[in-house]
Amino acid sequence: MLRPLFLLCSLVLLACTCVRAQSGPGRMLDMDTSFSSQHSVTIQGKTVKYEVEAGVQPVYHEDKIVAGLQYTYYRRTDVTDPNRPLLISFNGGPGSASVWMHLAYTGPKVLNIDTEGYPVQPYGVSDNPFSVLDVTDIVFVNPVNTGFSRMVEGADRKLFFGVNQDIEYLADWVSNFVSRKNRWRSPKFLIGESYGTTRVAGLALELQESRWMYLNGVILVSPTEIGIVRDGIVEAANRLPYFTAAAWYHQQLPADLQGKDLVEVLPEAEAFTRDELLPALSYGAELSDERRRAIAAKAARYSGLSAQEWLDNNLMVETSYFWKHLLRGEERGNFTVGRLDSRYKGIDGRAAGERPDYNSELTSWLHSFTPAINYYLRDELGFKTDLQYNMFGPVHPWDRSGDQTGPNLRKAMAENPYLNVMIQSGYFDGATNYYDAKYSLWHLDPSGRMKDRLSFKGYYSGHMMYLRRADLESANQDVREFIMKSLPGGKSAKY
Questions:
Q1: Which domain holds residue 335?
Q2: Is the per-residue pLDDT at 482 higher than 70?
Q3: Range name among 1-10, 158-167, 218-227 with the lowest pLDDT average
Q4: Domain end marker among 317, 333, 358
Q5: What per-residue confidence (pLDDT) applies to 108?
């Protein structure tokens, strides 16, 4: 048995396209290779058998290999359905690897963390009983310079690191992947988190118009602005409902609000934001002193900050100030709160100041994610390399010009009656806050003619809502139901 296995491995290695990557002397990346293994997992009480393929697929430019993207592809093997859905997953940054959703959300493995998402040792992974692998195959993709993905030495950085460059080369890569895996008949879905939402929003139209690949759904997890302008007083006002959520979590609201469930309080904060705070900010210096004080008092009621703090900040409190000051004072513990997830608390060198010293949630996450992904890919899946797994890779400067990803997603929906969109947001996310996400949803299609194909789901957690065990279950179920509802079921694609 050893000799045939040796010959097979030799043939695989000979077939690899080995190109020196921009990762240091002596470190090579096989630009076209894969390793497969068989597994099983129990999802919602039922056994699911699957194959996992950890590989690298080339990126081409003018028919030359310019980079290799490392991916992990999960394919269910105990069903034979050529029309089985395919979910293509991206994280964000830009510059972030696919590790976050890969080992904490939709895949068959999740981190060893506690029920609220905090790291525990020993580090590692365990089965995900809520994975959507029961209803869809999944591929997690690392864009150039993230994870183990690398450029070819001497390749032009301008091909990759920008809003539209990123979308263009990834559309070609996705098209090639679908062809290689014989998935053209599959209903296809994109899911992206954070900057990954900019990526998948743009990919929806690029795939349709340049690769003639039509999708069934796009899922935006903790979305960015996706090219929808909400600057100035809109941006300032939209922070308030997030302040309410974070203050509620840390029990800093008045007793009458604190005694309610969060989803009962948030509509009040949203109504105040839309109907009172935003109109007041539009007056600027013309706002009367009496009205200014009234707005400050009400903003204080919904934020956990004082009315004087709102007045001192001209009714436009920055998020960095909020993270530093919500729990400032001996009676509140003099903690800071996290940016991406304000449930997490931090300790600064001094209580005074305008912003926290560090992001308390990110250091906690890196604690558990980094050892887990390295162990899992190298030891369990057999992806052996001397390359460093880039949790955050060198992709800057990033060209943000010409970001029309939101309008392009609307156009993709208009062109494709099958295409549905769902947004998922954590209420305690202070970086891409949930009310901004709602605002983007409202303005994605201002005509309102496609609003029945747009949906929003909120969760009692932060940017990575799936780290909280209860939300891992509910968020996966929302993805599962979205996929199943977005399958055409024989219905024609027409208006």
A1: 233-358
A2: yes
A3: 1-10
A4: 358
A5: 98
